[in-house]
Amino acid sequence: MPFSGTDAYIADKDLLVAVNAAIRLQRPLLVKGEPGTGKTELARQVASKLGAPFIEWNVKSTTKAQQGLYDYDAVSRLRDSQLGDAKVNDIANYIRRGKLWQAFETDSRAVLLIDEIDKADIEFPNDLLQELDRMEFHVYETGETITARHRPIVIITSNNEKELPDAFLRRCFFHFIPFPDAETLARIVEVHFPGIRRNLLSQALATFFEIRNVQGLKKKPSTSEALDWIRLLVADDVDPADLRADAKTMLPKLYGALLKNEQDVHLFERLAFMSRRES
Q1: Using an 8 Å Cβ cutoff, are 226 and 208 in contact?
Q2: How far apart are CA 6 and CA 76, in angstroms?
């Protein structure tokens, strides 16, 4: 069954094509885009739509590819041997299954999310090439080979913090999620806040895109930050007229949900100062 989107996730035609192409090719789908554009949520929605088990592997700077396969807890085995525990005779008792192993052994095809792969060491993607290609790996401690019962749908996200190796990229189907335009973002907001006042939505999005378009911003506000901001506006029943920027600072109401560093706040204050001086 092809992925056609869900009521809770707004996906454009190109993204739907990319998901279904990756599934047909049995290749990992590598999704890039600004933080907060829905890359992680995409995997959850694919699993939900297809009725597939969802397994999430959150990658950190210290994550090693081996951890996705399994971990051998030699320290626990040594401790148990000193205590005379009988289970030390079976080394399998000390093998902890990783996320990839879990995805391989599900009774039906799973969706495996490898989230923010670019956070890890540069060798991390290369260390997974064979396992993702052959859908199997060897457990040296027990001598067994683990083969996927059903080839999982693999979705990999990246925030472009570092370049990924060419050998890894060749094995993926790639899609870049662009930042949504005003019309698409309005649809996303309406999914999260059904019944939102039209005048509030219109003014909030106009203000949001004005902020994003300011030249010199260190961090542009993302989709998720727009949703957080609008959640506050809805909760406080803010009058749309109150969303206009403060003339003294050029900052909108509740700007802390959108601007996340002092450099950007100072940028707006400088713009306000220059505007007053010119007038």
Answers
A1: yes
A2: 45
Q: Which one, of 203, 276, 209, 265, lies nearest residue 234 by Cα?
A: 203
Sequential pLDDT tens for the chain (279 residues): 688 888 889 888 999 999 999 999 999 999 999 888 899 999 999 999 999 999 999 999 999 999 999 999 888 888 888 887 777 888 888 899 999 999 999 999 999 999 999 999 888 999 999 899 999 999 998 899 999 999 999 999 998 888 899 999 999 999 999 999 999 999 999 999 999 999 999 999 999 998 999 889 899 999 999 999 999 999 988 888 888 766 566 788 888 999 999 998 888 888 776 766 666
Kindly give, in sequence order, each residue whose CB lies less than 8 Å from that of residue 103, ignoring residues fewer than 6 positions away.
53, 55, 110, 112, 148, 152, 154
- 33 forms beta bridges with 177
Three-state DSSP at 68 gives helix
